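Practice problem 4.
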């Protein structure tokens, strides 16, 4: 259904100051159709007019389109985003980076390409690295967890990260919340992580060397 949505169908009354603080989008939506891409971009414009932040998860899917098409369609979103999230592997393939580039160097390169944006690169079992809008790099290790279901861990990371950005004290806290949420997801089968905030918070507050998370 979303592939048929048009910009004029967006509920403009929703996009008002105070109704929300952030709009989150992913690169899957513009891949579905031209009208979906136009609708998503219009949503970004309305959100920013309302004073909201915008986060964009590149979320490249090769089965939906090739890299050239994705790069062209996603560029307007990446240029407008306050927060840009992507896996290191997409940074390498999408932007033609050297395959052996370090996560920190890759994150720095993207921060230079999108100044004023908070950049986050997820590293799978190695955690995540981020660069804030002032150019400060922060690396966050993954929390050890018994892997039951990996599918959906990226979205869980994003949810935890955005919570941390909105409710806590900056990039370091946000990265910790994101990696903790991803670890909790690893212990949940299926692709939809039904979890309580307190579960993630306990992991965020855990001391170094705590036992591997399991259920």
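Answer key:
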């Amino acid at each position: 259904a979303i592939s048929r949505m048009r910009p004029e169908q967006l509920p403009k009354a929703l996009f008002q100051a105070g109704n929300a603080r952030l709009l989150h989008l992913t690169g899957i939506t513009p891949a579905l159709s031209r009208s979906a891409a136009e609708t998503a971009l219009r949503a970004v414009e309305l959100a920013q007019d309302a004073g909201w932040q915008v986060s964009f998860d590149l979320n490249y899917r090769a089965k939906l389109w090739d890299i050239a098409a994705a790069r062209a369609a996603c560029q307007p979103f990446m240029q407008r985003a306050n927060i840009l999230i992507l896996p290191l592997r997409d940074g390498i393939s999408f932007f033609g980076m050297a395959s052996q580039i370090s996560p920190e160097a890759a994150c720095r390169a993207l921060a230079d390409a999108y100044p004023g944006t908070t950049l986050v690169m997820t590293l799978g079992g190695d955690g995540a690295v981020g660069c804030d809008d002032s150019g400060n790099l922060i690396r966050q290790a993954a929390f050890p967890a018994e892997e039951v279901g990996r599918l959906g861990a990226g979205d869980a990371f994003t949810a935890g990260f955005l919570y941390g950005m909105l409710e806590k004290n900056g990039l370091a806290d946000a990265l910790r919340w994101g990696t903790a949420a991803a670890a909790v997801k690893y212990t949940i089968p299926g692709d939809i992580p039904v979890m309580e905030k307190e579960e993630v918070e306990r992991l965020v507050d855990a001391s170094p060397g705590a036992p591997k998370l399991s259920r």
